[in-house]
Input
Amino acid sequence: MDDIVERLKRLLIDDLNFSELQAEQIDIDTPLFGPTGLGLDSVDALEVVLEVERQFGVTIEDNAESREILSSLRSLAAHIQKVGATEA
Output
């Protein structure tokens, strides 16, 4: 799962322009959205979902579960690992 987390951190830094952060500064349990987290918005969420699909081949359906999946890097990485394992 560490490799997935590192790739997700790179996604945030490179694709979402969090260039002011270093990968090691991003805690995997920090909320991705909201004022107490990284502050991503709905446009960022769409970009994350599209990049996860492109880079990992894992889709995130727009349903009630997606909010939990996208709550932190840990939950997103766990979903990628779980779904990727079942698709492999």
User: Anything to note?
Assistant: The CA atoms of residues 33 and 39 lie 5 Å apart. The chain has one domain: 2-87.
